[in-house]
Amino acid sequence: MIEFRGSKTQPLIFDGAMGTYLKQISPSDLTIEEYNIEKPAIIEEIHRQYIEAGAQAIKTNTFGANPIQYDRNLCRTYLEAGAKIALKFQDRAEVYGSIGPMETPDLGDYLFVAEVLYQAGIRKFLWETFPEADRLLEIIDSFCQDHGDTLHITSFAVFPSGETRLGVLAQEALEAADKNPHVQAMGLNCISGPYHLVQLVKSLPTYQTPLGLMPNSGYPTMVDGRLQYKENPSYFSQALAQGLNYGLSYLGGCCGTDPSYILELSRHLKEVPGQAKSLKKEERVLKKTESNLKKKLKAGKQVMVVEYDPPQEATRDYFKKLSLLRQMEVDAVTLADCPIGRPRMDASLTSLILKKDYGLDSVVHMTCRDRNINAIKALLLGLSLEGIQDILLITGDPVPSVDREDVKAVFQFNSARLAAFVKNLNRDLENPFTISGALNINAPNFDSELVKAKRKIKSGVELFFTQPIMGKNAIVQLRRAQKELDVPILAGIMPLVSYRNAQYLHNQVSGMQVDQEVLDSFHEGLSREEGEEIGIGWALDFMNEIKDEVSGFYLITPFQRLQVIERLLKDYGQGKEK
């Protein structure tokens, strides 16, 4: 294993950007990697300029050279050429093989890139601009099995708010890298400017692994259809050097920087030698609260929540039936987030009205369909401040095909990733969230469903809401889930109310499976009262069969008929008293 040379008192100075600087001095239709073959002298000149400016380490021009972007043979050519050019300067500076993230599930694609660079003479690797740690560390571990004579720096790209594009917090990614024996240094790069990355470092704990920053020069603006960065090397160097007060062991630049930035940075560091003061990082002592629902679950008491979807129109009529919910003494009302991709009154705003005007707790459903990471975080911060702490995270139904030309889904991440994001956000919240997830007990491949559920638990899910029980098989799978999952489960119950209702759910709705015996109990021509009576009877049977096995029930209101849920709860309560 090669030792990392940077330290808190003698930080290693890296070069700056290759791509943005290259396009600035030599604009053409070539991709960045194609310059390695078509115009190698320009790449060589850029390396030279950075070294003369004070860079002690340079990166190969291979960030985007991968088998996803190029044919493998062509990719190999660009990688070998990039390594060859940079290694010409190995007597004057350390040479790091630059590897960027790829849109591929195949770890072999990453290993191919690393292997080609290794065979070309590279022994130090910078894995930069990555959005998560787990997969990256798996790649590095695999590579190091056969290449123990290598050095690895992992660098993650985060927004000023501290999250990657996948919602992974910088602290989470760095903590994972800090524990990995094959990582010799780690840091943050790209997306954010120096001030914001230094502010972020101030809030991080102290790590054993050397930490560094390679920020963008600042934030770009669009000029004549092209992104441009404002030139300010002096500000960049002064702002970045402040990071030495918080234990940084390497510094460099990313997008928008050029040799003038590295020159200013190296000059500034010479003027303030040994600047590392290890200032005490800011620590917040939070008095954490818990929701009423979580307290009751922890006390081992059975909970009862009722789903009552927000209205499709801006009307107060929806709230007229809330007196029924209060009379039922339910523990919370669950509010769906635009189910089946159709707009309804916002679930979060509805939850605030329920809390402030009616004294009712809510479980707010939150999908990944309609919001990006910024919108989700903004919403969560507001909910936490208002004491809305119970959330149900789901990936979300797709937008109906007829609307897709006008309504675009986001799906920046899935429910497991969103749970991990909220779990990390909880660290800094006085009113942290109780994170719930969905469990499909009607899934035909329940083994796969349990694997997903365990992944959700690892990501931070503390409670499961199941799909509605519509038969014996669902109960069998629920019991299996109770044995294999170590979190509370609320069993979903939705009374069927008519023949058409039963047939539609069984044949048209994903995740619903109605037993034939239940289907046969409904027939055309039933009155409304008769249909409700049959549905309530089945719901009671299911509840009574499992009442001693679950942590509570999740009652789904059919067609906003709260009187059906009221009757079900009344009959269930009477049954318990007997």
UniProtKB/TrEMBL annotation:
Pfam families: MTHFR, S-methyl_trans. Pathway: One-carbon metabolism; tetrahydrofolate interconversion. PROSITE patterns: HCY. Signal peptide: none annotated. One of its GO terms (molecular function) is metal ion binding. Keywords: FAD, Flavoprotein, Metal-binding, Methyltransferase, Oxidoreductase, Transferase, Zinc. GO terms for biological process: methionine metabolic process; methylation; tetrahydrofolate interconversion. Its cofactor is FAD; Zn(2+). InterPro entries: FAD-linked_oxidoreductase-like (IPR029041), HCY_dom (IPR003726), HCY_dom_sf (IPR036589), Mehydrof_redctse-like (IPR003171). Zn(2+) binds at residues 190, 254-255. Residues 1-269 form the Hcy-binding domain. This is Homocysteine S-methyltransferase. It comes from Urinicoccus massiliensis. The gene is mmuM.
